[in-house]
Design a protein that fits this description.
The protein has nine helices and no strands. By secondary structure, the protein is mainly α. Helix 4 crosses helix 9 and helix 5 packs antiparallel against helix 6. It is globular, with a radius of gyration of 18 Å.
């Protein structure tokens, strides 16, 4: 068991490093067009992977959704991006509230077959990412690096939860959705995010508010993870894909970023 855990963790870590390094280089360049291209590519891959797990293989609605999104973006720019981000954030808050109250029966008809969600949610990540890098915040750091911090936070929270949960996890957390996740793992993920915030506040002399913000981001990272675990259980899917060794598919990798990015972008904009 211990050998299997180490092997799986090493595979996940190497894959994670392979994903993170190009992202770090991209952020270091601080080129808007490269950034747009990368985020749009990730969004299209996520939508395509969702479609692959759906009974509806038609991409007509996906194309229409993307074209409408781009048209509204070109017409209204930042105002549209923020309103879209805010709307998606409200959806995630609603899901998270149902998750806390164990009222997931409200989502019993939701699965990968929902063609509306497969465009809405990935496009929420796209909208919030583009909005973030184009607006100043109260934090004394480039917004490209702020994007990287938010992505790192979800990854650190996920890794901390995986390590602590694997080593100490005994108490199931919502086992009807994801039986392998534990209360101990959840606490470990939150602590990991908090420590990351403390580290950043000292290293980069960031406003202390970054600590509670990253802890909030950690919670919504878990919400995203549980949402897709719920979808996979509803649809009888183990992994959304196999493109990323140790992680599964694109959606398996970015599930925690889909809620945490828009939620934190809204909060950062509020405090700005």
């Amino acid at each position: 068991m211990e050998k299997e855990f180490k092997s799986k963790f090493i595979t996940r870590s190497l894959t994670g490093l392979g994903i993170i390094m190009p992202l770090v280089i991209l952020i270091y360049l601080e080129n808007l067009y490269f950034f747009y291209a990368a985020i749009i590519a990730i969004t299209i891959l996520a939508i395509s992977e969702w479609r692959a797990n759906s009974q509806d293989k038609s991409f007509t609605l996906d194309v229409i959704s993307i074209l409408i999104f781009l048209a509204l973006f070109l017409a209204f720019s930042s105002k549209f991006l923020f309103l879209y981000t805010l709307g998606i954030s409200m959806l995630w808050v609603f899901f998270s509230t149902c998750l806390i109250l164990n009222k997931l029966d409200k989502f019993k008809n939701i699965s990968f077959n929902n063609t509306l969600l497969r465009s809405l949610l990935p496009l929420g990540f796209l909208a919030s990412s583009i909005f973030l890098v184009n607006h100043d915040s109260f934090l004394s750091v480039s917004n490209f690096y702020l994007f990287l911090i938010i992505v790192f936070n979800s990854a650190i929270s996920d890794s901390s939860a995986y390590l602590i949960g694997s080593a100490l996890g005994k108490t199931p957390l919502l086992k009807n959705i994801s039986p392998n996740k534990t209360v101990e793992g959840f606490i470990g993920g939150v602590i990991g995010a908090g420590l990351f915030g403390v580290f950043l506040s000292f290293l980069l002399n960031l406003n202390w508010i970054i600590i509670p913000l990253l802890i909030i981001g950690s919670f919504f990272s878990f919400a995203g993870d549980y949402f897709f675990s719920f979808l996979k259980r509803q649809s009888g899917v183990k992994d959304t894909g196999s493109i990323l060794p140790g992680h599964g598919g694109i959606l398996d990798r970015i599930d925690s970023h889909l809620p945490s990015m828009p939620i934190l972008v809204v909060l950062i904009n509020y405090f700005a």
